[in-house]
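Hi support team,

I submitted a single chain yesterday and got back a structure, but I'm not sure I'm reading the token output correctly. Could someone confirm the output below corresponds to the sequence I sent? I've pasted both exactly as they appear in my results page.

Thanks,
R.
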Amino acid sequence: MSDDMQERLAELQQKVSDLLREAERQGASAAEAGAGNDAGLELTVRLGEVETIEHTRDNSLGVTVYFGTRKGSASTTDLSESAIRDTVGAACNIARHTEADAYAGLADAELMAGEIPWLDLYHPWPIGVERATELALACEDAARAGDPRIANSEGATLSTASGVRVYGNSHGFVGGFPSSRHSLSCAVIGADAQGMQRDYWYTVARAPEDLEAAESVGRRAAQRALARLGSRKITTRAAPVVFAADVAVSLLRSLLGAIRGSSQYRRSTFLLDALGERVFPDFVRIHEDPLLPRGLASASFDAEGVATRPRDWVAEGLLQGYVLDSYSARKLGMQTTGNAGGTRNVTLVPGDLDLGGLLEEMGSGLLVAELMGQGTNLVTGDYSRGAAGFWVEGGEILYPVEEITVAGNLRDMFAGLVAAGRDLECRGSVRTGSWLLDSMTIAGE
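Hi R., thanks for writing in. Yes, this is the structure output for that exact sequence:
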């Protein structure tokens, strides 16, 4: 870690400590506070010209105070002593006028993280505007140069950001760590006599050396757009479906939403009281590893200071637990799972087949490459999404399809998972390969 980052970390730790002391001085029985400092660059080129350049530098400071079980929160971007006093005062005024909530409060003291391991999350990229422009142009040029059917471009964007986050509470816990995140994306439009199709590709990583090459990102965006030219409509039918890895992540996110503690205590989930039940076939294991080095969602403690640890959410197809913070855990009579702020690096353990192998296993059916709309009902499990993709026969892609809807129920879809691919999508907090489902309704003409 650079001397500058060490100074920023130490400064924010001091600010958080100051907030907590001020909350105690103003009469709060408990308090928690968080602070952040970020800096970054985002640059977009389009059609060979620089379109936007944005430099960012942000501070944030937030505090939550408790008067017994009454709670109030306030935030500021000003890190001065007077702003700290005023922010704590605002939070205290809110807390004094809110109703008591028996489940509110800090996470239990014994669950606080002890050691904070170095997870290799901080790799700043001291790239200037000139070099960022070169990379973005190289990305877009690669997308536009390969085929005359690439008729237009929505541009290529390079983004880099690094910063530090600190959290502390009146249990005596104050912890923080620096992190970085870099990305490069490109979106283009292909055209032929039948019409136009848009598609994109992107790469994201903690360290710049882990990004895909700029030219590779551009070529992949172009290939995806060109593959969709000549899309057809198909008739309504029931058929097997493969969800490509980058859209299958949405199915895994639906599972995590259904087992979230708030969904359970509100009784607003199709997996209500499903702990220990069979949700997937017995070959399925879904694992969380918040301590994954360079992981895009890694953290050694959650948003309440609770130590994170690896765990299985599904093992041998059986649901192993709910995603809990301390509030939802108390509502359910359970203990927090260290997931305040969300899940971290959840992976459906891959099988043996790549995407081609899954298509061969399917034989005839639909490969879903894009989903549209918000047709997922986590209360009932009903699922209906607009889609585009490719029709497959004999394990081979025959032609692209569009203007269809795929429909089913998530309970049935999870139970009907035939295989999960080894083509892991790793560009986010949820990681999975492609999914082969035994049957869904495909609504077309």
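A quick pointer for reading it: The first helix runs from residue 3 to 25. Let us know if anything else looks off.

Best,
Support desk
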